[in-house]
Amino acid sequence: MRVAVLQHDPVVRQSIQQVLARAGHFCSAYEDGVAMSRSLCHSTMDLVMLDWHGKRLAGAELLRSVRQVAGERLPVMFVSSDASEERMVRALAEGADDYFALPLRAGEFCARVTALLRRAYPERFGTAASFDCGPYHFDLVRARVTLRGERVRLSPTQYRIAALFFSNVERVMSRDHIFAAVWGHEQPDLTRTVDSHVSRLRGLLEIEPRNGFLLQPVYRSGYRLLRFDEALARGSTGEMC
């Protein structure tokens, strides 16, 4: 999973990065809240970790900024040296999903991260062998997709992209997020690789109104799979951040 970490203390920031990397997560670290908020406009994350204290943005104001950019569904966890009950209560009351008081205890920290991600993305942690999305059926065991009962021949890469989109309907997926989730590593210099794969996949899966879905480009970010009626309600084919 992709995690954005804002932490003003460089030692703590590095420790968090190391713990998350050992747990198999991709981590983007920031020391400034404004820079992180700008980055979230173009690069999607699965979890955001915030420091209550900061240089330009901090506390509840920082949380509101993140929510405005990334939405209400994105899980947000505070990791702070301030262990006061008053601070924890305020953070949770303002909409944070968890609050971890330093020092960093790796075992507990990872357990909380996993629990938070499991609640936010149950489909990524579930044990189901398959799932249905409109006329599409995904066989998670054999990595196959059928459309109205007919198998769609996909390469392993195409299948992973399809499963990512259809298990995240309505959610914006940035190109770097797609690349990391599908190819298994970060891509510092984005190419047109993701775009060409998505374009081909749209045709193979016939993602179009008659099948109930649209794959919508999101300006300066990536793509979002929408149910057709919801796309009509939005009244656009893209959006700006």
From TrEMBL:
Organism expressing this protein natively: Paraburkholderia antibiotica
Stated name of the protein: Response regulator transcription factor
UniProt keyword annotation of Nucleus present: no
InterPro entries on file: CheY-like_superfamily, OmpR/PhoB-type_DNA-bd, Sig_transdc_resp-reg_receiver, WalR-like, WH-like_DNA-bd_sf
Gene3D superfamilies according to UniProt: 3.40.50.2300, Winged helix-like DNA-binding domain superfamily/Winged helix DNA-binding domain
Gene Ontology terms for molecular function: phosphorelay response regulator activity; transcription cis-regulatory region binding
Matches recorded under Pfam families: Response_reg, Trans_reg_C
PANTHER family: PHOSPHATE REGULON TRANSCRIPTIONAL REGULATORY PROTEIN PHOB, REGULATOR OF RPOS
DNA-binding span(s): 128-227
Coiled-coil features, chain-numbered ranges: none
